[in-house]
Amino acid sequence: MSYIPTTGEQQRQMLAEIGAVSIDELFADIPESVRLKKELDIPKAMSELELKAHMQDMAGKNISLDKYTCFLGAGAYDHYIPSVVTNLLSRQEFYTAYTPYQPEISQGTLQAIFEYQTMICSLTGMDVSNASLYDGATALAEAASMACESTRRTEIIVVRSIHPESREVVSTYARFKGMTVSECGIKDGVADLKNLEELLNDNTAAVLVQSPNFFGAVENIREIAEIAHRNKSLLVVSCDPISLAILKAPGHLGADIVAGEGQVLGNPVSFGGPYLGFMAAKKDFTRRMPGRIVGETVDRNGKRGYVLTLQTREQHIRREKATSNICSNQALNALAATIYLSAMGKNGLKKAAELCLQKAHYAYNRLLETGCFSPAFESPFFKEFLLIYHGDVDKLNKHLLSRNIIGGFAAERYYPEFKGGYLVAVTEKRTKEDIDRFVSEVISAC
Amino acid sequence: MKVLDGLKYSAEHEWIKIDGNKAYIGITDYAQHSLGDIVFVEIPEVGSELNKGDVLSVVESVKAASDVYAPVSGKVAEVNEELADSPEKINEDPYESWIAVIEMSDLSEAEELMDAREYERFCQEEE
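Output (structure tokens, whole complex):
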């Protein structure tokens, strides 16, 4: 065990080395008034056996997706993760690898990131991807600030159907980066294009839109792109990468930057993180990209090799003017995404997306048939949809939870205009039986 | 170090060639020499309105990334797209490699710039 703390003897040795008589003397600089004059109020140490039992007992209080059937999404989704993902991920060469600053000893890590970037580019239809960012929300905010830098404009328009937490992060960034944010309203669950045209002005750097959006609805990216570009503004699209297996890539619809949450690619929901944000852009924006990019090159013997590219620019030679102060990436989560995409393959990912689509539509129709809901919108949706519940959403969810079902998201929390709004997510993991049981429990509750 | 007669110079090491109300702008031999091998030039957008002192472009070398400032106010009328693919042209021939043309909105601003002799002295003092 490498975690045993210092023994009394070692403490004496260390004190002697620095010339202090006791620990008290070492801390002599700390004023009496701020010192704790009693022992820390913590329980006595446990044996390994006791500790394990204790931790398992506490962990047992969590609601786990292994034991509950989940219809909750709203940003984090319970997708299938092939066993190979966890298996390869926990190899220590990957698991404990440090930042690949030294390419000569980091080819494996660098190649994995390079493969990740390549896959993100083909999914999003963009030219260049970075090595990943912290999460979907920061990726979107970074894209907004990138757009302001490139266009030398300072206004951002966010569509109200973007994940509310991502919008909050964009606003936080804006406050400290001299950007202003205005909100484009929604109509039938998607961007209100008329409102968008009204908001655009000659200081609009970019329009930010999410598709499928927070309500699961698919936005008209092509038209939004045209509207934005007519104004010489950029279009930033946040999207669900699994949906891209069946929906047209934003890059082919006119997006300039694509940024989003990559959790769905092989990363467990895991109480909210860690996840990864992905970001890809048209070639023109390569040098505005935050974080790092891994590039492929040849060494002096002509052999293929990988190396961090353009990172020096951001972090060293242009530090005070860098697009972002993000110097890292979510390497392990990005690796999970890479292994996931390799294991699923083109057809596997398409299959998963199709199953999401079909099962979500089956659940949508069955739930409407109960008579307990009315539809909120008519816009096409992918794997998530908003309904209006006629009763008390909290009561419904409580009942479902007692039947080991995690119900939908009470959308009213972020959208007071949708009273009784109930956001339901259905992934490929939900079986017909799961959905039928969900529906019959809804009937008995409403 | 080469300084050409007939051009104007700024304290930020830009050269300016005045032609009517047009100002061709590039970076001087002194500037390219201090930067080293140039690997990237950010081409400004035609039509953008700049005030004297605004960032016009970014020139990036293997050792530094430096902003190029507008030495005069006005509208970007033309840009040298060739530099996007061949930034090394600035190293090879700095006085032929203009980055942008600004249509000056205030001709008197050009008067405030240095001439070749003044710029030579300015560089010696910088050393």
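Chain A has a mean pLDDT of 94.
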